Amino acid sequence: MSLIDQDLALNGGPKVREKPWPGWPMHDEREAKAVQAVLESHTWGTRGPKVQELEAKFSAFHDAEFGVAVTSGTTALEVTFRACGIGAGDEVILPPYTFIATASSIVAVNAIPVFADIDPDTYCLDPAAAEAAITPQTKAIAAVHMGGCPAEMGRLRDLARKHGLRLIEDAAQAHGAAWDGTRIGALGDAGAFSFQNSKNMSAGEGGMVLTNDREVYERAWSYHHCGRVPDGAWYDHRILGSNLRMTEWQAAILLVQLERVEEHMAIREENAAHLNERLAREVDGLVGTAESPGTTRNAYHLWMGKYDAGAFGGVSRDKFLSAMAAEGIPIGRGYNPLYREGAFRDAWDASHCPWACRLYQGSVDYARVSCPACEHVCDVGGVWIYQSALLGPREDMDDIVAAALKVREHAEQLRD
Ligand SMILES: *Cc1c(COP(=O)(O)O)cnc(C)c1O
């Protein structure tokens, strides 16, 4: 009896996949040596040589002039918005299909998140929806390179230029991705990266701001370093900043992780191409998302798919995911629309700043936001596979296809 004819694992049958998937984060003796060297250097923090080397190498790798290493992707976003002059009274347009930090960091600088829908094919911000959301209060657009695939930077750049807006990249998932032959991160005014545990380069936590704009760089540098300036005295604080400095431990590990990025990218791209090709040929109802026009490298922090229950024997997305997980496939549903998260739907209070700030001339009501493309992806159509599952041999992709075929073969057992 062939594999796909066996009982579903959900119903007690054998799993398609028993073997473990590649673990994450990855390390070898190079990280161990790097951490040991920091230990013995007696410089464990406060902008030591490893942090400075990482800023230089990471920015060069991303075709950017300047880098500022910080504590997380969340604080990288906050520093980026602040350094770009976003503050009280300003609206920032962002997609609702992203991690909460893209929105919470906007509120952290006293600005107002305004959600605009995503493109149903790429899951990235739809430039037409972004344009429709522009008001006299709009100061910036925050594009998210969702899953590691660049947002539609051509049209977003034109839009920002036309309306005099800042264009900021949330590149937390997109280390090494490229658009129109240039790495992402400084395609707009500035970009924010994350080195959190799950990200394509990791030190457990950490972040980076990239920019080609010297003024933005100097403000970001000063803000993350207690308001100091590069050539100033230690107790010379020119602005009110914070301490958001990365440690030497993190930088030492990330310098090694950076050496692996190209190799990992190539493996993920090859595996994703194989998976997409087999799905398109053999599995009606499940395809990989499209890439934005101009995409030259996809970092595949996620393999994102479009699921169509109608073409899949009427099995709902969530039933499909449970059946796939039971077969041993590391697969998930992903985000909720951010405006439906409790933070915006329930806990948001328009009588508090920044919404009630006297500098803010507009008004928003998150309870009334509707982004149908995002809701479709979150509720019934979106599928995620994490990047580390794309780092094994190509046969791993065949297991994903085999599991999908097996689940479809038994669709009648899974219909609601
Ligand atoms: C991970 C992530 C962040 C936040 O990064 P942290 O380092 O976890 O603070 C922001 N935006 C996106 C899209 C992310 O995936």
Q: Any overview of this molecule?
A:
The protein is α/β, with parallel strands linked by helices. The chain has a domain at 29-257: Type I PLP-dependent aspartate aminotransferase-like (Major domain) (Aspartate Aminotransferase, domain 2). It has helices at 29-41, 49-61, 73-83, 100-108, 127-132, 153-163, 214-224, 248-282, 317-326, 342-345, 372-381, 395-409, 411-414; strands spanning 66-70, 91-94, 112-115, 138-144, 166-170, 178-179, 182-183, 190-194, 207-211, 286-288, 295-297, 302-307, 382-386. The strands form three sheets. A seven-stranded mixed beta sheet has the order 1-9-8-5-4-2-3, with helices on both faces. A three-stranded antiparallel beta sheet has the order 7-6-11, with no helix packed on it. The longest helix is centred in the middle third of the chain and has 35 residues, at 248-282. It is globular and about 75 Å long. Bound molecules: pyridoxal-5'-phosphate (PLP).
